[in-house]
Amino acid sequence: MPDMSGRDISKAVYNMPKNIYKDQRELGGEQIFGGEQDERETICYTINGTEVEEKDTKVYAKIVRVNNSVGHYVLFTPHGKMFNPHGLYDDAQFVRQGQGKKPFLFRKVNEKAFNMYYEFLRTRNPSWLQNAERECA
User: What are the pLDDT digits (tens) for 38-65?
Assistant: First the structure.
């Protein structure tokens, strides 16, 4: 098959990088890269700032530590807003997420936005939610 310049590109060889994840395997929730085991710790929060298990369906914020790095995650709606579990309709939308709707996803945020969202969960003060959303924008 010739391209616009007349060269035959059907026999072209592309130098693709080797699969760097070839040695990656998942064992018991911990990933192994090249024989080294990653230490993973997750702290999950729900309404009133209570710590819960990661398997719980009412997890709204979490801190994930992998080796020496820390990530802060908050649950976002399909519309790109932080999830408000105290809202009038949000709980019903959260329950219906599997019925053809876009999923609610955890997105990584900075520590300041996470702390503001955590204060919102703990105190139910909507000012904390608005400030956390501003921090992410």
Answer: 788 999 999 888 999 988 888 999 999 9
